Q: What sequence folds into this?
């Protein structure tokens, strides 16, 4: 089955991971800007990072036949430095017309601080002025519900926001309703330790349905599994879900959301090949 990984930090992965993902049916990835494991010291550090995301990484993905898309921002972990964050936000428009740049992300909250909220709002303002899609990071563990509630409230305060153009990521059992009830898209991140396992994500699908929801691996430099989406596909198959419903979650839904971006130029895979493979199965 073809699938799209809508949130995976491939800069932190080796080229072999692209090959493994392609063999499992991955045809496209979306890579948000994120924390490098340390705080960058200057706006030029971010400029070089954005060049890597928009210039080299699409080339590296193409070696395995995978299409690569990206998002730009200064992440929540570094948003405590308000002055640097504002320099980065002012620089982002230099890159917004690059091929494959889908919007602003992953923005959000980390520790739910005042500075993080300030920079979140300023990212949202940039997205509204340039009419970009938004990809949102929600906090980890004990801060998740509070942070998700804060994020949703800040979005609802801005009457320019179109919920169907916002994706709230890392939702779990206690936050998925916050996103879906307000009309936002949401995504579940499949981690082997934190966030959702494929089994928990399957439970959430059974409880809340398959509209405006997708799954991703995040696949960063911490404990993560770049083949988590195929693991999720297998979990749903074991539960008896038809492939047509699974395909909606792992392929059709990301396409529907991403197609709202003017920079999403996607070449669909050869569906005839997939149909032949299904017959052989």
A:
């Amino acid at each position: 089955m073809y699938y799209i990984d809508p949130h995976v930090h491939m800069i932190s992965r080796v080229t072999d991971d692209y090959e493994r993902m392609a063999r499992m049916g991955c045809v496209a990835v979306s890579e948000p800007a994120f924390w490098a494991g340390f705080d960058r010291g200057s706006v030029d550090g971010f400029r070089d990072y954005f060049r890597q995301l928009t210039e080299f990484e699409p080339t590296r993905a193409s070696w395995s036949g995978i299409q690569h898309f990206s998002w730009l921002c200064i992440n929540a972990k570094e948003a405590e430095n308000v002055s640097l964050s504002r320099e980065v936000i002012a620089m982002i428009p230099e890159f917004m017309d690059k091929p494959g740049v889908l919007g602003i992300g992953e923005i959000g909250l980390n520790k739910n601080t005042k500075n993080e909220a300030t920079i979140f709002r300023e990212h949202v303002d940039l997205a509204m002025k340039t009419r970009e899609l938004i990809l949102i990071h929600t906090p980890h563990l004990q801060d998740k519900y509070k942070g998700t509630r804060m994020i949703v409230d800040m979005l609802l305060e801005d009457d320019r926001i179109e919920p169907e153009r916002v994706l709230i990521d890392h939702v779990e059992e206690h936050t998925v309703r916050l996103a879906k009830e307000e009309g936002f898209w949401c995504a579940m991140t499949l981690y082997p330790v934190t966030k959702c396992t494929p089994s928990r994500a399957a439970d959430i699908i059974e409880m809340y349905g398959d509209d405006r929801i997708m799954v991703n691996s995040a696949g960063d430099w911490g404990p993560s599994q770049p083949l988590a989406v195929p693991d999720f596909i297998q979990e749903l198959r074991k539960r008896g879900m038809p492939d047509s419903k699974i395909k909606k979650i792992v392929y059709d839904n990301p396409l529907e959301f991403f197609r709202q971006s003017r920079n999403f130029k996607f070449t669909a895979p050869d569906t005839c090949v997939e149909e032949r493979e299904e017959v052989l199965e």
